Amino acid sequence: MEVEPIARLFGKREQKNDATVAVTDSASGRQLSLITLRPFTEKVNGRVGDYHIGRFPAEKGRLRSEAYENPEGFIEVTRENKDTPVSEHFRLADFLTHDQANVWPKYLVLREALVDKLELVMVELQHRGVDAQRLRVTSGFRSPQYNQKGVGRGRARDSRHQFGDAADIMVDNNQDNRLDDLNHDGRVNSKDIRVMADAVESVERQYPELIGGLGVYRATRARGPFIHVDVRGVRARWGRY
Ligand SMILES: [Zn+2]
């Protein structure tokens, strides 16, 4: 596919792949990723290609507000483009639904406002003296089919994860899949969660357009603590810290 204004700006050579194009902005020298969406209408019988997605809440007649409308489309993620950066610290693969491991391409819903918010939370943490080099997304997009499996076991029926604007996150610089000891008191507990939650609150105060959900999840036997953030457009809070 050729997108005329893009071809003019960056040259036809760059457009090798339908879904993502890596380009360099000649003014700033920064790397950009141009990502095209597959339209929502390509989902037929709950699938795009061989990849199962399921039916969105609005398709089942549950339209709570504008924010719950069907997404515009899907990003096609292949083995080749999965590491395409979507921002300084995040790439497409960070947000994929954790299912259908052997099915490619996969399809992803991801809103830029979410990625902006996550980057700003990292900036805010740094600003507060927290060494946040790596923010692990333990759950980003959840296809409606995948989300449905967890309803009644902690997942909300109309979860924002289905709309590509939610992420469950933890600072995990040492990459051990657990939240780090952010306040250096020798323990990983609700105080470290509070450090993250305070950073999210601060980002929302500075950028009201990125307002959304903030959920706090304490450690269980099975997993460590984490927080949920989203950009649903209205303030929502749950969990205690
Ligand atoms: Zn979540």
Helix content: 10-25%
Low-confidence stretches: none
Summing up helix and strand content along with how strands pair, one would put the structural category as: alpha+beta
N-end to C-end Cα span:
49 Å
Percent of residues in β-strands: 15-25%
| Oligomeric organization of the protein chains | single chain
Count helical runs: 4
The distinct ligands, each listed once, are:
zinc ion
- For the biggest β-sheet, the strand order reads 8-9-11-10-12
What can you see in these coordinates?
With 241 residues, this protein is α+β, with helices and mostly antiparallel strands. The chain has one domain (17-238). The protein is 19% helix and 20% strand. It contains four helices and twelve strands, in the order H-E-E-E-E-E-E-E-H-E-H-E-H-E-E-E. The strands form four sheets. Strands 8-9-11-10-12 form a five-stranded mixed sheet, covered by helices on one side. A hairpin with a 2-residue loop joins strand 4 (47-48) and strand 5. Helix 2 (112-127) crosses helix 4. Zinc ion (ZN) binds next to strand 9.
Give a topology summary.
Layout lengths: L3 H7 L9 E5 L6 E5 L1 E3 L7 E2 L2 E2 L20 E5 L28 E3 L3 H16 L7 E5 L4 H5 L17 E6 L18 H17 L6 E5 L8 E5 L5 E3 L3
Parallel strand pairs: 10-12
Antiparallel strand pairs: 1-2, 3-6, 4-5, 6-7, 8-9, 9-11, 10-11
Bound molecules: zinc ion.
Zinc ion binds next to β9.
Summarize the structure.
By secondary structure, this protein is of the alpha+beta class. The chain contains 4 helices and 12 strands, in the order H-E-E-E-E-E-E-E-H-E-H-E-H-E-E-E.
Tags for this entry?
single chain; five-stranded mixed sheet; three-stranded antiparallel sheet; 4 helices; 12 strands; 19% helix; 20% strand; binds zinc ion
